[in-house]
Amino acid sequence: MAFIAPQTFRAVASVGFLARLGLGRLWRPRGEWWIGAVSLAGWAGLIAAQGDGGVAGLCSGGGWVGRLAGEWRAGLLAPRLIGSAAMTLAMVAAMTPPLAIDSLRVVALRSFPKWRVRTQAAWFAAYAGVWAAATMLAELPLMALPPPLRPHLAAAAFLAAALWQLTPAKRRALNACHKARPLPAGGPRAVAAGAGWGARVGAACLAACGPMMLAAMAASWPAAAMAGVFALALYERYVARPPFAATALALAAAGGLIVAAG
Amino acid sequence: MVIPVKNGVHTREDLWSLDVWDPTLLWYAKAMGAMFARPLQDPSSWRYQAAIHGYIPGEPDLQALLKPGDQIPADSGTYWAQCQHHGWFFLPWHRGYLGYFERIVRKTIVGLGGPADWALPYWNYSDTQHNAAVARLVRPEFVAHALPDGSPNPFSHGVQRSPFNLVHTPKGQAGDFNVGSKDVRLKCLTYPHFYDHASASSFGGGITAFNHGESPNDTSAEGSVEKTPHDNIHGDIGGWMDSFETAGLDPLFWMHHCNIDRLWSVWAAAAGHSNPADAAWLNPAGPHFPYRFRDENGVSQTFTPQSVLNTEASPFAYRFQDLNAPPHVAVLAAKLQIPPAVSPAPPPQAPRLAAASDTDIDLSPEQVSVGLPIDDAAPTINLAAAGGPRQAYLNVENVVGAGKLETRYVYLNLPDATAPDQDPDLYLGSLPMFGVREMSRGGAAGAGNGKSFVLNATDVIAHLQQTGHWDGKEVRVYLIAKNPPAPGSKLTAGRLSLYYR
Question: What is this structure's pTM?
Answer without folding.
Answer: 0.91
